[in-house]
UniProtKB/TrEMBL annotation:
Signal peptide: none annotated. InterPro entries: DNA_Rep/Repair_Clamp_Loader, P-loop_NTPase. Gene3D superfamilies: P-loop containing nucleotide triphosphate hydrolases (3.40.50.300). This is DNA polymerase III subunit delta. One of its GO terms (biological process) is DNA-templated DNA replication. Pfam families: DNA_pol3_delta2 (PF13177). It comes from the Bacteria.
Length: 209
């Protein structure tokens, strides 16, 4: 059966769309939702595999929804990949994420990607932060580290870099590229279960010259 990736910068949008989609072919009895707000490992994927082994009770399909699937550890994503390679015919799997690029490419290649717009993308406060990053005080950065959405930060970085390239702002582009390099370095630590607040603090307090 087909597997899907529902992608949107807005968490509420991707959750709403995934639940609405699954209701077409699965009742609440045959829908299993897994929350990965914190890093989730292989044990969760094994539980998913167990659910998929049973036939739906009163629906056409058993639906598995894995919320914020980008939080899955790399070993867990590899385990999930094996399921996606040969999913049971009586099932469908929906992975929600802010950005498909945060998942293994092999997972993305086995899913149908559905992108949903977010109402507040154009007014993203992170864009404003990037425009005046060097002027942000230490106190403000401390507050930001408490609530920084790293996925949204990465997306905002990409948009800001594109804007600098179009504008021909070489100095601004150099600063953003340094910040991007630091961000990617920190993101690599996510597979080691580093606390997200610590990751955010490392990104925000890195000196950009």
């Amino acid at each position: 059966m087909q597997s899907y990736i529902f992608a949107s910068l807005d968490q509420k949008t991707r959750e709403k769309e995934s639940k609405a989609f699954c209701r077409v072919s699965s009742s609440s009895y045959d829908t299993y939702i897994y929350d990965t707000s914190e890093e989730a490992g292989i044990e969760m994927v094994r539980e998913v595999q167990t659910k998929l082994a049973t036939l739906p009770l009163n629906s056409a399909l058993t639906t598995i929804i894995i919320k914020d699937s980008h939080n899955l550890t790399i070993p867990a994503q590899n385990a999930l990949l094996k399921i996606l390679e040969e999913p049971p015919l009586s099932s469908q799997i929906i992975l929600t994420t802010s950005n498909p690029e945060l998942l293994l490419p092999t997972i993305v290649s086995r899913c149908l990607v559905k992108n949903f717009a977010s109402d507040n993308v154009s007014s993203d406060s992170y864009q404003k932060l990037l425009e005046s990053f060097e002027q942000v005080s230490v106190e403000e950065k401390i507050k930001l580290a408490e609530s920084l959405d790293i996925d949204r930060w990465v997306t905002s970085l990409r948009a800001a870099i594109s804007a600098k390239v179009i504008a021909g702002d070489e100095q601004g582009l150099r600063k953003l590229l340094v910040l991007t390099k630091r961000t990617l370095k920190i993101l690599k630590l996510s597979s080691y279960h580093i606390n997200k607040k610590i990751m955010a603090a490392n990104i925000l307090f890195e000196h950009v010259s």
